[in-house]
Amino acid sequence: MNAMTETEPFVHPALFYRGEQEYLAGTVPFVRAGLDAGEAVAVAVPEANLELIRAALGEQASQVQLLDMTQAGRNPGRIIPRVLRAFADAHPTRRVRIIGEPIWAGRTETEYPACVQHEALINLAFRGREATILCPYDALSLEETVLADALATHPTIIESGTQDTSAAYAPEAVVSRYNQPLKAPGDAPSMPYAQESLPDARHAAARRAAELGLPESRLGDFALAVAELTTNSVVHGGGVGALRIWSEDQYVVCEVRDAGLLTDPLAGRRPASRDQRGGRGLLLVHVLADLVRVHTSPAEGTTIHCYFER
Amino acid sequence: MNDPDDGYPAAGEAAPWSRQLSICTLPDRAGLKVTGEVCLPTYPVWERALEEVPRQRQEGPYWLELSALTFIDVAGATALATTAQSLDDEQRIVLDHPPPALSRLLELFWPELSAIEVATS
């Protein structure tokens, strides 16, 4: 144990695993130790790995909350509020222990910056909390750069059964490094909006999304997300903004661009309490969208790309 | 989305029906009929209407007839949930034909709010 874990109750190791055996050796005893200690335990990993853990746990699996991370955490921006904090907050009197695997080999280049920023922000979101979050990384399939980033987003690394402090730990630097400018295709028309034209912007966006093949069942969520992003521009982003909609691979993408600066790295990543009046807008976008990418800087303002699967 | 326009309207182009919110009392029971959409430009009207709800001392629930409410954003849904949370134990708000956006927001953020009921008829 290093000096940090003696004073900091939050523990956040990455587990670099090679193959099924190492995966089970790194996760199943971790789950059992949590159950033995009376902790609340959850496992949120991709389906195939979830099945491995479920089978290995046998009857004990019923004492653990099991989630398919490719669904619950499809948009990495909602993992903190809707998976990790949701579970921790549901067990306020117990230490919680969670296995969270948000990065798998199928994550795309577009998704990855949001994934690694999420990993970095866990440290900020859970600072001072009675929790352990173990993040498995498939060292056989993931690229070297992904593993190198994991050294920067986790204070400790477990590899081949050995736990070490990560000398490269620097989560704020990771958040900044992946705060990358976002581009829309040149031919996507730009629609400016202000307070009075917010409804028009929302209607036009939903109409365009429908033309691009977003199914009826998703149009309502899409309109809600557009409403929140454009309203944020008007309220917090200088009063005006510009909206673009286009299709990209299996997604309809909505871009909202304004002059505001997002200064709170956890904006939209805190669960809303039942009685809280504001602060649900960006959280709602994270909950509804399949992916959210953000770029924010004092010089260029804020650009948000929001992906909805067609 | 039944706006007949094609393409993006220019900012500020009139679409009056979309930015209006009108609220009137129901003729046959305690409650309101809400027409239009609740979003940033119309929020103050919605908030003022909701402020009246806890002051009502009617027999039975307070009805919100929402079949002509076409959209509500999360701030509007929050105002409704906050109003419901402020009611006395026996008071209830019944939503008649809420728009899908409202049902979705209540399900996502206030799944156990017992002071709000949805009329099933």
Biggest interface reads: A-B, 38 and 32 residues
- Helix percent of chain A reads 40-55%
CA radius of gyration of chain B:
15 Å
Number of strands of chain A: 12
- Specify the overall morphology of chain A: elongated
The low-confidence runs of chain A, each spanning 5 or more residues with pLDDT under 50, are none
Cα-atom radius of gyration of chain A: 20 Å
What is the helix content of chain B?
25-40%
Oligomer: heterodimer
Domain module count of chain A: 2
Overall pLDDT confidence of chain B? 85
SSE-based structural type of chain B:
alpha/beta
What are the secondary-structure elements of chain A, in order, as H or E?
Answer: HEHEHEHHEHEHEEHEHHEEHEE
Summary of the model, kept short:
With 310 residues, chain A is α/β, with parallel strands linked by helices. Helices cover 40% and strands 24% of the residues of chain A.
Textual characterization of the structure:
The N and C termini of chain A lie far apart (47 Å). Chain A has two domains: 3-177, P-loop containing nucleotide triphosphate hydrolases (Rossmann fold, 3-Layer(aba) Sandwich), CATH 3.40.50; 191-309, Heat Shock Protein 90, CATH 3.30.565.10. By secondary structure, chain A is of the alpha/beta class. Chain A has helices spanning 3-7, 19-36, 47-57, 69-72, 79-90, 112-125, 144-153, 171-177, 198-211, 216-236, 281-288; strands at 13-17, 40-45, 65-68, 96-100, 131-138, 156-159, 162-165, 191-194, 240-248, 251-258, 291-297, 301-309. In chain A, a hairpin with a 2-residue loop joins strand 6 (156-159) and strand 7. Chain A is built from eleven helices and twelve strands. The model of chain A has no long low-confidence stretch (mean pLDDT 96). In chain A, helix 6 packs parallel to helix 7 and helix 10 (216-236) packs antiparallel against helix 11. Chain B is an alpha/beta fold and 121 residues long. Chain B has a domain at 40-118. Chain B has three helices and five strands. Chain B has helices at 43-51, 74-85, 100-109, and strands at residues 21-25, 31-38, 62-72, 93-96, 116-118. Chain B has a five-stranded mixed sheet with strand order 1-2-3-4-5. In chain B, helix 1 (43-51) packs parallel to helix 2 (74-85). The two termini of chain B are 24 Å apart. Classes of the chains: A alpha/beta (310), B alpha/beta (121).
